[in-house]
């Protein structure tokens, strides 16, 4: 196995599903990066200096200052989680550890499930989080609407994993092919927060087992603790026991 490339990457992030998918990918690829904790509660992401990196004022974002192969200085910003994952694989995953060779059928399947997450699970579960946890008043319609849609999307993943299990190897099934890819990482980053949205992932047996397998990976554990320890699950267990 080739040594990880020498990189100079800054990750601007926070301990959210969107942020964690970027840090997990970086950890899985084993490449060097520096972390800048963006304090969302203080609206740091809306400050002028950050808007120059991501005009939308959201995390995650990266600035890649790795020199070109011929040694020339370079500084490339990348924002939006899906774009970051694709960029990192294209630039630094030459062995296709987390993806497949460009323009193969499996490559485009990875892109499909990645974009599906970006347009479905992320927005819908994000709204479920808001109405269930943060809305100034409890609006049952909003809670039920977005929890129901989140569960529908979970069922799509469940059905996909059932289909994939027919040809899976000993460590599968995965969303695409015979390995964990950025499609799995992107979707996992939200599934792993299911209970924060008031959704019980245990009712989806294959999806729950898939999430458990991903959670056991050392690089995933490291990525979840960026930029600070991931304690959401422990906090909810403690609250439930009171």
The count of helical stretches stands at 9
Distance between the termini: 49 Å
Rg of Cα set? 18 Å
Q: Provide the β-strand percentage band.
A: 5-15%
Strand order of the largest sheet: 2-1-3-4
- Please tell me the overall pLDDT: 95
Shape: globular
Order of helices and strands: EHEHEEHHHHHHH
Structural class assignment: alpha+beta
Task: Characterize the largest beta sheet: strand count, sense, and whether it forms a barrel.
Answer: 4 strands, mixed
Name the helicity range.
40-55%
Question: In terms of per-residue confidence, which ranges show pLDDT below 50 for 5 or more consecutive residues?
Answer: none
How many strands?
4
Could you name the key traits of this structure?
single chain, 242 residues, alpha+beta, four-stranded mixed sheet, 50% helix
Q: What's the short version?
A:
By secondary structure, the chain is of the alpha+beta class.
Blueprint (SSEs and pairs):
Elements: E1 9-13, H1 17-29, E2 33-37, H2 48-51, E3 61-64, E4 76-79, H3 81-92, H4 105-134, H5 140-164, H6 182-191, H7 205-215, H8 218-224, H9 232-241
Parallel strand pairs: 1-2
Antiparallel strand pairs: 1-3, 3-4
Helix pairs in contact: 1-3, 1-6, 1-8, 4-5, 4-6, 5-7
């Amino acid at each position: 196995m080739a040594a990880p490339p020498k990189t100079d990457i800054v990750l601007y992030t926070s301990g959210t599903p969107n942020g964690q998918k970027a840090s997990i990918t970086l950890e899985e690829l084993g490449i060097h990066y520096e972390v800048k904790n963006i304090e969302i509660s203080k609206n740091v992401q809306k400050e002028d200096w950050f808007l120059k990196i991501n005009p939308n004022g959201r995390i995650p974002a990266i600035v890649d200052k790795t020199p070109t192969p011929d040694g020339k200085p370079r500084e490339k910003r990348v924002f939006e989680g899906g774009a970051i994952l694709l960029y990192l694989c294209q630039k630094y995953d030459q062995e296709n550890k987390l993806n497949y060779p460009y323009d193969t059928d499996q490559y485009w399947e990875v892109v499909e499930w990645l974009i599906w997450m970006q347009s479905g699970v992320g927005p819908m579960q994000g709204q479920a989080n808001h109405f269930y946890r943060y809305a100034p008043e409890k609006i049952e319609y909003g809670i039920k609407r977005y929890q129901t849609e989140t569960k529908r999307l979970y069922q799509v993943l469940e059905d996909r994993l059932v289909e994939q299990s027919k040809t899976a190897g000993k460590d599968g099934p995965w969303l695409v092919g015979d390995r964990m890819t950025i499609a799995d990482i992107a979707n996992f980053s939200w599934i792993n927060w299911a209970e924060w949205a008031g959704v019980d992932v245990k009712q989806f047996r294959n999806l729950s087992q898939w999430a458990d397998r991903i959670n056991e990976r050392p690089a995933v554990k490291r990525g979840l603790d960026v930029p600070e320890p991931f304690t959401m699950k422990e906090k909810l267990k403690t609250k439930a026991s009171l």
